[in-house]
């Protein structure tokens, strides 16, 4: 076993043109102990099915670009938090590059290759569509003693133009149960700050999957909120464990050195930067063996926000306009203005190892993408 990575299934490495790099695409398999102190904060992990050894198993897509010659690298992995399943290291750091390069021209100016980084992306988001282009994670669902669990999911949306129907992509992973039932509700608010929405009569709208059709149409600028019952909540917080344990596997390998490195840096932009802030806040920068995972973190245009992931029925795809910014806002301990206990992103009982940090924010990005 490599950290909490149990095995990695890969195809044959493919050369990326004449860059001296090769591409590895595969699946990384994990098994975590639900009773371990470093895992007990994962919501609903105690309700997951377990293998014979008592651990919870799951898997994720894995993508690596590595120097072909071991001595050509700089000994550092740059691991990316994918944004909604997409790869962005080459396009973000190499001018003129494409996300999945095949030729030398497609790596752009080759900045990351000239530095000798090993580039890694691992799936962490359960609601990413299944296709060859995107990276996702497959996690178990929570059950109540083996019996299915159901609950009401909800999401808000605002349209820029009038429309007769709207598909709520934030809820893409949650199929409605009894869409005509009493739990299905649609409300509207003139202003997002209004305390409560006005109920839209049930006879005026219908729900098919995640698509809502409204008699008279949706009005632009108003805030709508949809509620309905779903079943089989995914244990989404395992996305944090997948990222943690992939980084730990890179940093503390045994056996085959698929990506031999000494240091691991993480990068995430917008949604992915918010992931990193939550990752640190919830104490995932320490693995089950008590070792540091990430040496450095760069969270780009994440602002002071975090991500909606480690709870039942989360909405990680959401822009987080109304929910992402929540106390605490800074790394250092702050006083809660609403009277709660003092808290800090990096100053709390869960955080054992602090990486070096780079926060970058611009007037263009809002940190909610």
Structure description:
With 369 residues, the chain is mainly beta. A hairpin with a 2-residue loop joins strand 14 (205-208) and strand 15. Strands 1, 2, 3, 4, 5, 6, 7, 17, 18 and 19 form a ten-stranded mixed beta sheet that branches. It has a four-stranded antiparallel beta sheet with strand order 10-16-12-13, with no helix packed on it. Helices cover 9% and strands 29% of the residues. The protein is globular, with a radius of gyration of 22 Å. The longest helix has 14 residues, at 238-251.
Q: What topology does this entry show?
A:
Elements: E1 5-10, E2 14-15, E3 21-32, E4 56-67, E5 76-81, H1 89-93, H2 111-115, E6 118-122, E7 137-138, E8 143-144, E9 147-148, E10 150-158, E11 163-167, E12 185-189, E13 198-199, E14 205-208, E15 211-218, E16 223-231, H3 238-251, E17 263-269, H4 271-281, E18 296-300, E19 356-360
Parallel strand pairs: 5-6, 5-17, 17-18, 18-19
Antiparallel strand pairs: 1-3, 2-3, 3-4, 4-6, 4-7, 8-9, 10-16, 11-15, 12-13, 12-16, 14-15
